[in-house]
Protein 1
Amino acid sequence: MKVKDKEFEVYITEAELAEVVEQLAARINVDYAGKHPLICPVLTGSFIFSADLVRKLAMKCEVEFVKYTSYEGMHSTGKVQAQLPFTTKVKGRDIIIVEDIVDSGISMNYMLHELAKFEPASVKVCSLLLKPGCFKGGFKVDYVGKEIGNDFIVGYGLDYDGEGRMLKEIYRIKS
Ligand code: 5GP
Ligand code: MG
């Protein structure tokens, strides 16, 4: 399967993604039972994952999108840009940041630093995917859907230069 100029192969099927989302939601439902968290999905990559996840949550919750970008094409620029930042709405709230993938962790480190300025009551990170081989640390990913290798992936919200987000499976670049 081709996205732009690169060949990709199926890596995580639709059925496995549904299973992973189900398991994440089950854990969050236990931890946040009786609470009223504010879910903050990070645009654009997590729009599909977060839509699936929140529909499996059992507690009362609200959703407030943020948008922080760092990737260009297939690589991180290392510079994080806030396009839709956290606001005073997070003050005193139990926040769950929802990401598509934590790679180096640079973006999340930056976001956590920004978020802390607004004094939330608590903060947890939920990421569909984690690349442990790239992760530089600095924070804990409280809810990890699945750990993957260092390969570049697209689909289920994740893009290659703007394309491929609508794919139902996650695809890995063919080497
Ligand atoms: P980090 O700052 O942790 O290095 O990168 C995090 C962000 O980079 C993710 O939110 C995601 O938008 C993007 N990213 C990291 N790895 C990949 C990948 O393999 N494919 C795509 N499409 N985006 C990625
Ligand atoms: Mg992202």
Protein 2
Amino acid sequence: MKVLVTGGLGFIGSHTVVELQNKGYEVVIIDNLSNATLNVLDGIEKITGIRPEFEKLDLRDKEKVIDFFNRHKNIEGIIHFAASKAVNESVNKPLLYYENNLNTLIFILQQMAERSLQNFIFSSSCTVYGEPDELPITEQAPVKPALSPYGNTKQIGEEIIRDNTKAHNIKSIALRYFNPIGAHPSGYIGELPRGVPQNLVPFVTQTAIGIREQLQIFGNDYDTPDGTAIRDYIHVVDLAKSHVVALERLMNNNNKKAYEVFNIGTGQGSSVMEVVKSFEKINNVKLNYKIVGRREGDVPAIWADTSLAEKELGWKAELTLDDALRDAWKWEKNIRDAKNFK
Ligand code: WQD
């Protein structure tokens, strides 16, 4: 049972590779290293004792992708992470995002149809919901106009997969992630943002370790209990496990429809201030932060109704916000200690 993981050296991809290997699957990774480094392979091997097969490949290079599939005949399933994912970069470079995220998705699906590959897991995002009308948000909530080209590529991606599933016999599941945070408890793999982190938790850990001077909290005048925005922060290991469960649903033909969508979150909302205070408490560190104005495009509050994933996938997040913040801090300290990473 060989599973192809595209973007498998990325933050969520690498953690998913670990969980696939833990369940005995043989994994082959395609990654173009645009947002990952090769020592992620070392980290995976340190955790599982198995170095996954890896090919440096850009999915836009059609010749090389066709050659890859010609050489790998026994792929049972594909988990597709490879995509550009920085929200504000997508505003400045929309065509890069539409080309990279959508053309490569279409090409992968074409290759699957030509080779009768059937099981496809798509990395989607709660960003497709925009600003929710009611909370917690279910999969039946309306998809609203995207707040960024990145979010739009996830919306369009879901529609392409849905329509493709009708035309070809490719069973597909889209997992709508809420906010992935944390790192593997071993401290060997985690989030490696390039440049200034856009996301909250890596900015928190880099501020705590002294790389960043001060955390800016974007707004405390939202209509929430403490005024700061609320998100559903899910430990990346729980998120990784949901991919294995979803793939097995398809490989065992337990899916109820050819195309299914699941919210993958904890079902629990946490404010920015709650994250900051939990981080300080659980790691016994003091964070230098300042409240500033709201960030353009932020929604005040969103968290998941995860009952469908619980019922249909038998999956539920088990790790807490504190677990994720503890693991994120351990990882940050590890990567700054050069001896661990050649
Ligand atoms: C979380 C909260 C910020 C940084 C994005 C994408 C989503 C997914 C996850 C890819 C917000 C606040 C943040 C900072 C802050 N990415 N914040 N200071 O925006 O909910 O979701 O990342 O799939 O698709 O949209 O995550 O971590 O950027 O922000 O106060 O320095 O933290 O305002 O309220 P977001 P985030």
Protein 3
Amino acid sequence: MKNSRRSFLQTAAAAAGVTLIPTDTYSTLVNATPRALRDDRMKFTFRPYTIELKHPFTISVLSRTTTPVMLTEVEYSGIVGYGEASMPPYLGESHETATAFLSKVDLSKYENPFELETILSDIDALAPGNPAAKASVDIALHDLIGKILNKPWYDIWGFDKKKAPNTTFTIGIDKPDVVRQKVKEAVGFKILKVKLGRDNDKEMIETIRSLTDVPLTVDPNQGWKDKNYALDMAHWLKDRNVKYIEQPLPKEMVDDIAWLTERSPLPILADEGFQRLSDLRKIPGTYNGIVVKLMKSTGLREAHTMVMLARALDLKIMLGCMVETSCAVTAASHLSPMVNWADLDGNLLITNDVFDGMKVIDGKVTIPDRPGIGVIKL
Ligand code: MG
């Protein structure tokens, strides 16, 4: 069985487009067990977890202090891949919906994790929606495959980790004294993201500008309702060294967004207005770019395709995250060398992380040099 397992891994690695170099992990796996491969099936498990925020997080539509997540594991041949679903309540998923969805996931029927396209297509077809729950399976499978190959995903994809961008740190909507405190906590970040969209937009920016000159980005989360106000704000923000605007108007106002994009001195990016890969066809002519998040894209498989296709279409790309543990944030970080901007700070906003993973060093996304997605369970 040893030889058939080795040839299976070599075939699988070739299919994944990588050169398989016999490393310690690989040799250990090949020699680990005399069990026939057919009896060695993937085991999928999940558990609900609630992450606690350091500060109440306020955006244009709500304020909250916790976020429900699901932590997933796929075990195969003694190797464990980790995944996560982060489910901010306003997006509609919850511990209950994710439990119902993930209970339907049966990975034991597949030969091995390298059947990734088949497995993830099947999982996508189990039920509509549920993008975060789907991402939690996708991320765990990617972690597992990378660990079997003994390579980090940025390396499997052929990306140069030195090209990872700076990450923004997010300042939620608040009173000036709280905003000042948050800006002080963000020391070391080379770019800040400011939530706008209530009635104090200019006060938020002026408060931050009284303390720092670092470039800013803004995210009204669909909170502006008028295209003329949005255009005036775009000019006002450009004069204050703001780099781009995420989702200024409600996603349904497609004609107004296209009008704004044509005139705006700042790039206009689709976040709420862009979810899955199939939405990409609607972006050119309406927005200048997209916000990619694993919890919208159903994980790394679609997010990778989104990034490559958006680059081919000359669209700007911002790689974002939810409030989540270092598991999902670190998974996303492997795509960061290929994007214009990153907002990978979700793990920094919480008090009870359960993984060690990507770090922000000198303001820059720093991808760990570990196989798979590169997280260690704490
Ligand atoms: Mg956004």
Protein 4
Amino acid sequence: MKYHIIIFGCQMNISDAERVASVLETMKYKEAKNINEADIIAIVMCSVRQSAVDRIFGLIEKLKKLDKKPTTVLTGCILKKDRKKFIEKFDYVLDIKDIKKMPQILKPTSYKVSDGTHCKIDNYLDIAPKYSSKFSANVPIMTGCNNFCSYCVVPYSRQREISRPAEEIISEIKKLVRKGYKEIWLLGQNVNSYKNGKINFPKLLKMANNIPGNFWIRFTSSHPKDFNNEVINTMAIGEKITPYLNLPIQSGDDKILKAMNRHYTVKDYKNKIKALRKKIPDICLSTDIIVGFPGETKKQFENTAKLFRDIKYDMAYINKYSARAETAASKLKDNVSIIEKKRREKLLTKILKQTALEKNKKIIGKTVEVLVDSKKDKRLFGRTKEYKNIEFNSDKNLIGKFIKLKVIDATPWKIKGKL
Ligand code: 5AD
Ligand code: SF4
């Protein structure tokens, strides 16, 4: 019996899919080479934007056409409102926290707890995952969110925050490092609010940094209100913690930030960036933005554009506002037209392109450390310690290895290097 997993959405969903694969393998399913071979298909969905939900409906049509008529299991971030519709279309619709119960739910007669340990339903993160890469691992440290940003479904789909025990996280990282993993991503909807007894996020970072071995530590995502000097200092002294930060600002206008329920001002955010750049001058910065939040005027959007010019990001994930059921903002009128949202997205992309190019050009001639991650003929690709995309030529198979490259050229989204 074979399984196939389809993943939509963020890195946390990739990590969740690794746990789904692990549970299916304890049920004696083997990974299918392709979707047509599968007896069971698990879909890890995303509900953050309506377009992601619409894609699931598109997928249903594709699944119907499969010869094998596989069992279908939908999990991931699912909104209560959508659940009813999905129950009619999929064989099973499971909350991500219930994936440990799959052996019981899918095979009621042969129920056995998959990993032989305790089966507390809301503690699915203690399932040992089937890592999808041999050198870069996703390690969730917490899940859920208590922040209720007015546009966001996550507090409804993933519910309240739970943090994994620090010993469990550290022992997972130690095992990965022993196996030769080179990159560890600490994941959570808001990693900065990680709390397990006396251990907060900076303490956890220090503990991870103290693990002996040659590896990098990355983390995502951070909330500016909780991103503080203790984290900055830990990043500055932790030699394994990479100089890269995604700090979502969402808007450059204080009134919009208030309507978004973000609990910081543009000034607070800028002060944090200033403190960070003082300690780590070469930090590579990215952000998340929502354009066209209900009521966002052209002037308010201009404040976001101005912030973009001031901060000079290396990368940004620019999202057009999409009203999500159950959220506070969905009660407001979605009154910025799609054309205007696209215009705003385009304008920010244009500024980003300039600042990213400017920053990438600064490293031409320098030698950078790179973790190689993929290959196409003689072209190899990787990421620098700062998480910049880099391309170079080589006959050797260097995937999963740390190497040093000299930067010889730069474009906005990629740099070119030479061995
Ligand atoms: N509409 C558009 N973008 C959204 N995001 C979250 N919710 C919405 C929404 N309703 C974006 C935010 C967040 C990222 C993961 O997705 O920018 O940081
Ligand atoms: Fe959503 Fe806000 Fe929580 Fe991020 S911090 S997951 S945007 S509610």
